[in-house]
Queue: 4 jobs
Job 1
Amino acid sequence: MSTPADTQDDVSLSELKNKMADFAQERDWDQFHSPRNLLLALVGEVGELSEIFQWKGEVPRGLPGWEDKEKQHLGEELSDVLLYLVRLSDICGVDLGKAVLRKLEINATKYPVKLCKGSSKKHNQIINNSDTSSSNIKDDGVSHDGV
């Protein structure tokens, strides 16, 4: 599998999915890529990503003051997380692009601009503190749903 760096600005989820499938097939790794194994690998990579920020306190956007080597390491760990997520969705038969777009629509309903703009409150706190009915918004106990 060729991996030309910096030859393309945008990469689709479909391209990543296909590249990951080819990568695994070339190495005969499909046998190890069960949903459980991929999930555990993903969690491990999220842990490695977390370690980068662990003792830095609040970090401003753009990572001012970070060395190029630190930013490169961050990019590698973010890539590992994305690649395992894409592979997991493929193995589970989930179209990640469609799932993400659907989830954004759900979140737009749960977090209407006029009620939540500038607020970090969970959707049920915003709705319960407004005069608007919350009958169509489900409280599932999940904070901010990926946004």
Job 2
Amino acid sequence: MSDWETVTIIRKKPQKASAMKTEQAINRARREGIPVETQQKWGGGQNKQHVTTKNTAKLDRETEELKHDHIPLSLGKIIQQGRQSKGWSQKDFATRCNEKPQVVNDYEAGRGIPNQAILSKMERILGVSMMMSKVKRKGSWQTTGAPREKLMSLGA
């Protein structure tokens, strides 16, 4: 009926080429004593360009510390007072300005980077003229927090 002399050996499928490239497969081949040849391609699989530009030396010689302008704290207080006089939370005010609440928070805390479009929206919604003319006197901003109606009556 059955032949007791027949031996069946079940083998695993040979590995695909992509599986042979993994670090695990390379280490297994090294343990088994199989000669392994690896080759690293220059810049392979990375989006890097290692080319120096002409401006590199110019940037290296640069000694000035460059920083962004920030909203002065006095302007932040004007925004905060205008918002609180309307009885709005920062989130309500941000919704009315179509901005994120974090932007309103940064502007009120004096951490925000000045954006004239955002400031004019806030000015219009609050009804307060912030007169954000940036006058470079010792690196400061000139602000007045008078209500818009009062400025109009003064002829400003």
Job 3
Amino acid sequence: MSADTSPTYRDAYARLSRIAAELETGEADLDRVLPLLEEAREAYAQCRERIEAVRAVLAGDWADGVEADGDEEE
């Protein structure tokens, strides 16, 4: 994790991948499934939050200085 203790997108995605792999084996103990799903929901929310933040920047700040044909405004 980073210095501010919030996981990076990469960290959260790695958690999702690890959880999916564990659940796909079908060998996860039933008592472990619910905690895994809770952890996956948290990691998914973190990934989605990061993706939405990037989309907002791309839709807003970057689009403000570019016309529809791709030329920058003067």
Job 4
Amino acid sequence: MATKFEDFLKEKKIDPRRILAASASIERFTPEDRAIKLAQRKARRSEDKKKEGLAAKKPRSGRPVTQRSIDTALKGGTLSGPVKTRLLKAVNRLLEQKKQEAVTLHALFEGNKKAATSKDESPAAEG
């Protein structure tokens, strides 16, 4: 049984190795990100505690998608939220390069497996 993620990759003809490369380029920690983190540290130490300029920006994580996380996604295993988001960013980058529409997180991954069961109406409540 194929997962939603695997079916999507086959349908759009995306190679998982390209996801690794795209994620590495998206999430790479750059000197700009280091400057943002430094500005945030300085803002925390200051008395006014206001985040202005670089401190207001959000740096990249510096953690690209790994082969292990792609394998888990293809098998339908459990993935954390940040890993799903990184996979989504990489897939959307590849779709953008192919001049196709971006997708949502729900289009790539199954819904919450802990779906709430509907409560049956008790017969005592009817009468």
